[in-house]
TrEMBL record:
A single GO molecular function term of this UniProt record: serine-type peptidase activity
Name of the molecule in the record: PDZ domain-containing protein
A matching Pfam family: Peptidase_S41
Organism this protein belongs to: Arenimonas malthae CC-JY-1
Superkingdom of this protein's organism: Bacteria
PDZ domain segment(s): 89-148
Length: 422
């Protein structure tokens, strides 16, 4: 299972354990130094700890009990902060490199420990077995996920081993079992083709470490394939659950000449950052239509928002997921890590996507999916105007949407920077 809604992996140095004392006049150290905890709160924690240790129905060792306390400390903050054991932290790193053993699905953990399927990854066992965005995984190999502290880990294993995934699906009265064979997932995050002479198609399924260079290479191939210059591009971000923010910034930079791409804002100084485009538009201003749906989240929303705010693209599809927060990964001295929400990100116009998502310029209809928006997650960060026009998003599958986007390009309904400059 992939934690693909992670954005940039920043380091909070003063929070990592095992470090030597530092000069408290250092502004970074001072900014991250722990504040005093009231003695009454410490006493309450110790009282609860001892009560569980002494009276729980079965013996609980100190390590297990302390780890449970740490998980609870983070999970009650928001849906994306979490305590990661060593294996989970290593799996998270593997995901960003695009190779791991599993079934190939992006999920979001729910408060009851079940897993909401944000998107099956293109061409993986999960997609081939029929797992859909909006499905809820309630059991793995017959074991309910309720109260399972590591539901994602159960989907990992050895290549070639089958796993039975029990899911509930909107509109179906009973759960269904899907048998999926694990394999080594090597995600090719970018693919492209010519739809017809002069019009290209670029699909980005997730954002990993090599996505940015892949986008530039495939745009170069598209512009060099035809006998005529590229007159328009369909950029497909449907069911793209996000990934590395840096990769989304690189993709946006390939289509923008200049200007702000995204900014992040948090409480700490190094949580506040801005990313700008460098000169050079790979398509020389040819119009772009971006396809989005309820599974378009996080870094994919950053890309869509940047292109629209700069009048570089028209957004077509359904309301996006609305995951507009930044998680930082803090390694601990025992090999475990914590994933902590440290900032929100903002589009070039200063708008937050958190819980609200991006509304398309041209609406397409798809299949309504249960829980496919940040706003529905228990304990989510409150977003700006998140209740305005808060209808649920829809999952849009198939090639019909690509045809609609192509029609919009040919009819001149998409934004073209080159035309605007005339």
């Amino acid at each position: 299972m992939r934690h693909a809604l992670l954005l940039p992996m920043l380091l909070l140095p003063a929070l990592a354990q095992g470090q030597a004392p530092a000069d408290d006049t250092d502004p970074v150290v001072a900014e991250t130094a722990p504040t005093a905890i009231p003695l009454t709160e410490i006493r309450r924690y110790v009282a609860v700890y001892n009560a569980v240790k002494d009276a729980y129905v079965e013996p609980v060792d100190d390590q297990t009990l302390m780890k449970a306390a740490l998980r609870g400390l983070l999970s009650d903050l928001d849906p994306h902060s979490a305590y990661l054991d060593k294996e989970e932290a290593e799996a998270l790193l593997d995901d960003t490199e695009g190779a791991y053993v599993g079934i190939g699905v992006e999920t979001e953990r729910r408060p009851d420990d079940t897993l909401l399927v944000v998107a099956p990854i293109d061409g993986t066992p999960a997609q081939r077995a029929g797992l859909r965005a909006g499905d809820v995984i309630i059991a793995i190999d017959g074991e309910p996920l309720v109260s399972n502290p590591n539901p994602h880990t159960a989907l990992r294993g050895q290549a070639g081993e089958p796993v039975t995934v029990t899911v509930t699906r909107t509109g179906e009265p009973a759960p269904r079992d899907l048998v999926i064979v694990r394999e080594t997932i090597r995600v090719n995050s970018v693919e492209s083709r010519l739809l017809e002479p002069g019009f290209g198609y670029l699909r980005i399924s997730t954002f990993q470490s090599d996505t940015g260079p892949q986008v530039r290479r495939q745009l170069a191939q598209l512009t060099g394939r035809g006998a005529t210059p590229l007159r328009g591009l369909v950029l497909d971000l449907r069911s793209n659950p996000g990934g590395l923010l840096s990769a989304a910034v690189e993709a946006a930079d390939a289509l923008l000449d200049d200007g702000l791409i995204v900014s992040t804002r948090g409480r700490l100084e190094y949580s506040n950052a801005s990313f700008h485009a460098k000169p050079g538009d790979a398509l020389a201003g040819a119009p772009v239509v971006v396809l989005v749906d309820a599974g378009t989240a996080s870094a994919a929303e950053v890309l869509a928002g940047a292109l629209r705010d700069h009048d570089r693209a028209t957004i077509m599809g359904s309301r996006t997921y609305g995951k507009g927060s930044v998680q930082s990964v803090v390694p601990l001295d025992n090999g475990d890590s914590i994933k902590l929400t440290t900032a929100r990100y903002y589009t070039p116009s200063g708008k937050s996507i958190q819980a609200r998502g991006i509304r398309p310029d041209i609406v397409l209809r798809g299949e309504a999916a249960r829980g496919m928006r940040e706003q529905e997650l228990a304990g989510h960060l409150r977003g700006d105007n998140e209740d305005a026009g808060s209808g649920p998003g829809e999952v849009i599958e198939g090639d019909a949407a690509i045809g609609r986007a192509l029609d919009a390009l040919k009819a001149g309904k998409a934004t073209a920077r080159a035309r605007r400059r005339l």
